[in-house]
Each structure stands twice: as structure tokens, then as C-alpha cells.
């Protein structure tokens, strides 16, 4: 029995020594790798925007008229008067297509005025209401005149009686005589007061009646104007330029206006801009706002022209405003040069340079850079003995690549995933 235990112990020691001499397992082959290369990393921020012209005029749906009408921008701080009832609309009969070059004075749209039935009913109700008010004021005036006449007649009769009583004073006791004189003075003062107040009260009541009659005449004029305000109104371009159509809501979606659309009076429906776009209006999220500075260069690409790229410069940056819950700021860029085919309202993307380009450096994919708990960057470099962790310094980076200034050589192979043995 002791011999069997000894043989088992010897076999176990031999097996352990054989396994200790085996090489360590090689890293799995599914680790993605990349090779460091010389290159330049450009740091840019892409903004979406549209081309615009410095000279543009907004046209608004006009009120009914028989002459050509240009609806100007309302003055700051003023509001368009809304008549009683539902708001008026005009039906767009014809409009020039978007992108059309128009000349100063050229007709760009025709409207048919349609008065709202609700508004007509409101005008008719206003006339009836003012007619009733005028009748009430007139009846009150006549009743007040009769009441004053009765008061004046009664006061005159009382004065005549007091005057007759005064003739009996010589035969009256002193107390009665004094009371008679007081009654006469009161009757005379009352009669004189009514005589003085009568014309003043009459003038005030006639002024109220005239005001009610004027309100009635105004209501009738507004009703007559509303009933006769149909017809066609034309809108002409105030200057030469390119036509840019506005949008309307249709089933929850926004689409360009077209003939047959009903547009509320005073709503913007068209813009005439200069024939050439000289600038870009874009937006930037508040997170990236501090990264853009006026004077930064940008490369502008056009959705309509895939092969066209033009240089531009950031001109200015506006204040932050909330747009559907996202806080953004407007950014205006000026074209350094342009072409005739660059017209207003073209959608573009602008790659804005955030800093001057660095000199040639060691470039690796940004996914190969890992961060320590303290935020210090490092990479995994492949060596003959396996993967080795190495601290690096990043000169600059974008969303795709990183330029390494220290810690990595050109040609080094780095891991895009954490190697297996480094995870253990």
C-alpha cells in the first residue's frame, strides 16, 4: 500500500513539472488591431444650415383690395387688428414656383378673398346690438326730457304758490311770516336750479345718443365692407430676386404652399431674396458653442451639388434659444467665394475648423485609446511577448482619429479591444 502511494506521488510531481514547461496560451485571434501611421488629424465640427441672401423681403397674405398690394412687415411692438369672429383667410389662386427669378414689380401671387361666414354673422350681430343700444339711449333721452319737463312744471307751480303766499305776510304772525319767506326762497332756488341744469343734461344725453349712432354707423360700414370685400388681390415683388415659398401645416406635416391653400390674412407666405446667396445660416448645439470662434474657416458642401465645396468664414454667433427642447445658437458664415448656381435656400453642411491643423504625427483610430479612472489615456501595444499597456499623450483628436505626440511609434500595432490577458 505504501508503495502505491509513493508511485502516485511521483506521477503527480512529474505531471506538474511537464505542465510548468508548457508556453503560455497565445492571445485569442479575435482582437481587432490597427497600425499607427504618420498623418494629420483635422479637428472640425459639422453644422447644418441653409444658404441665404443679405437682401430679402417677406410678403404676407394681403387683405381684400382691388389694387396691387404689398403686405409689409408689421412694425415692432404692434399687432394686427383681429375683427370679431373667426379670422379671415385668402385663397391662393396662383403663385410663381420656388426658385424663380422675378423682377421688381412683377406679379408673384394672386389671392381670392373669402370672408368667413362666422365673421359675417359677427358683423351682423354687432349691427343689431348697436341698433338696440341706440334705441335704448334714444328712449332714455326722451324719458329724461319728459321727467325734466314735469319737474320744471312742478317747480314753477310751487314757486307761483309760494309767491302768492308771500302776499299774505302782512297779516301773518311773525313765525308764520318767516316760514313763508323760507318756503319762497327754496321754491325759487329749486326752479332756477332746474332751469340751469336742463340744457346741460340735455347736451350730455344728446352726446350719448350721437355716440351710439356713430357706433351704429361704424358697425354698418364694417358689415358693408365685409360683404363687398371679395374679389382678387395681386401681390407684386418689391425688388428683383429669387422666390422662396413659405410652408403650411397639412395633417401635422409642413409642406411648401401651393395654389388652393387657404392662408390667414397677415401670415407670411413668400420671400423674395437676392438672386445670389452670399452667406449661410446654421445652428450649433450649446454643448459645442464654446468650440467655435468668429473668423474660423469652414468647408461648405451642398446637398444639391455633391461635387461642389466652397470655403467660408464664421462671421458671428447669436444667442442661445430653445428649439423643441434643444438649446441651440445661430451661426452665420460668409462665403469666401461663390458661384452663380449657389442660390438662396439650398441646404448645406459646414465643416468648421476648431483649431489650426497639427504637423504630421502618429495617428491611430480613436477607438484604440483607453482611459484610466483618472482620465489619463493609454493604449495596448503588441510586442513579441504579448500585449503591453503603454501611456500616451494625445495632441488632438476628432470623432474618428487621434494624433499621438508621445508614447507611440509609427508602425506599432495597437489593439482596438482590450486583449484577453489584460482583462483577467
Describe the structure.
The chain is of the alpha+beta class. It has four domains: 33-40 and 360-423, Beta Barrel (conserved putative lor/sdh protein from methanococcus maripaludis s2 fold); 45-52 and 274-353, Elongation Factor Tu (Ef-tu), domain 3 (Beta Barrel), CATH 2.40.30; 56-72 and 84-113 and 237-273, OB fold (Dihydrolipoamide Acetyltransferase, E2P); 119-227. The chain has four helices and 26 strands. Strands 3-14-18-16-15-19 form a six-stranded antiparallel β-barrel.
- In the predicted model, the low-confidence regions spanning at least 5 consecutive residues are 65-87
The largest sheet, given as strand count, sense and whether it forms a barrel, is: 6 strands, antiparallel, barrel
Provide the β-strand percentage band.
25-35%
What is the N-to-C succession of helices and strands? HEEEEEEEHHEEEEEEEEEEEEEEEEEEEH
Q: For the largest beta sheet, what order do the strands appear in spatially?
A: 3-14-18-16-15-19
Bulk shape? elongated
Radius of gyration, rounded?
A: 46 Å
Amino acid at each position: 500500500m505504501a508503495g502505491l502511494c509513493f508511485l502516485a506521488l511521483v506521477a503527480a510531481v512529474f505531471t506538474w513539472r511537464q505542465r510548468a514547461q508548457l508556453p503560455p496560451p497565445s492571445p485569442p485571434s479575435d482582437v481587432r488591431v490597427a497600425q499607427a501611421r504618420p498623418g494629420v488629424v483635422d479637428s472640425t465640427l459639422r453644422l447644418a444650415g441653409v444658404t441665404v441672401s443679405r437682401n430679402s423681403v417677406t410678403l404676407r397674405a394681403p387683405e381684400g383690395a382691388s389694387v396691387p398690394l404689398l403686405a409689409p412687415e408689421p412694425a415692432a411692438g404692434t399687432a394686427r387688428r383681429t375683427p370679431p369672429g373667426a379670422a379671415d383667410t385668402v385663397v391662393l389662386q396662383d403663385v410663381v414656383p420656388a426658385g424663380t427669378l422675378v423682377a421688381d414689380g412683377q406679379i408673384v401671387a394672386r389671392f381670392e378673398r373669402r370672408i368667413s361666414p362666422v365673421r359675417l354673422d359677427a358683423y351682423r350681430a354687432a349691427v343689431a346690438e348697436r341698433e338696440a343700444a341706440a334705441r335704448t339711449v334714444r328712449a332714455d333721452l326722451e324719458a329724461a326730457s319728459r321727467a325734466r319737463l314735469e319737474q320744471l312744471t312742478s317747480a314753477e307751480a310751487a314757486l307761483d304758490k309760494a309767491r302768492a303766499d308771500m302776499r299774505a305776510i302782512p297779516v301773518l304772525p311773525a313765525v308764520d311770516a318767516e316760514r313763508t319767506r323760507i318756503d319762497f326762497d327754496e321754491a325759487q332756488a329749486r326752479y332756477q336750479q332746474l332751469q340751469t341744469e336742463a340744457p346741460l343734461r340735455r347736451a350730455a344725453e344728446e352726446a350719448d345718443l350721437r355716440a351710439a349712432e356713430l357706433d351704429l354707423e361704424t358697425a354698418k360700414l364694417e358689415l358693408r365692407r365685409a360683404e363687398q370685400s371679395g374679389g382678387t388681390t395681386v401681390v407684386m415683388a418689391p425688388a428683383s430676386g429669387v422666390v422662396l415659398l413659405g410652408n403650411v401645416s397639412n395633417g401635422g406635416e409642413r409642406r411648401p404652399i401651393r395654389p388652393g391653400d387657404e392662408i390667414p390674412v397677415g401670415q407670411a407666405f413668400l420671400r423674395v431674396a437676392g438672386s445670389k446667396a452670399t452667406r449661410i445660416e446654421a445652428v450649433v448645439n450649446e454643448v459645442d458653442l464654446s468650440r467655435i470662434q468668429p473668423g474660423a474657416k469652414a468647408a461648405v458642401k451642398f446637398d444639391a451639388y455633391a461635387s461642389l465645396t466652397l470655403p467660408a468664414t464664421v462671421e458671428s454667433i447669436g444667442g442661445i434659444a430653445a428649439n423643441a427642447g434643444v438649446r441651440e445658437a445661430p451661426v452665420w458664415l460668409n462665403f469666401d467665394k461663390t458661384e452663380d448656381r449657389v442660390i438662396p435656400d439650398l441646404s448645406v453642411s459646414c465643416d468648421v475648423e476648431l483649431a489650426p491643423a497639427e504637423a504630421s504625427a502618429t495617428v491611430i483610430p480613436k477607438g484604440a485609446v483607453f482611459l484610466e479612472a483618472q482620465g489619463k489615456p493609454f493604449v495596448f501595444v503588441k510586442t513579441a511577448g504579448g500585449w503591453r499597456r503603454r501611456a500616451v499623450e494625445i495632441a488632438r483628436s476628432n470623432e474618428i482619429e487621434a494624433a499621438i505626440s508621445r508614447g507611440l511609434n509609427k508602425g506599432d500595432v495597437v489593439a482596438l479591444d482590450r486583449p484577453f490577458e489584460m482583462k483577467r
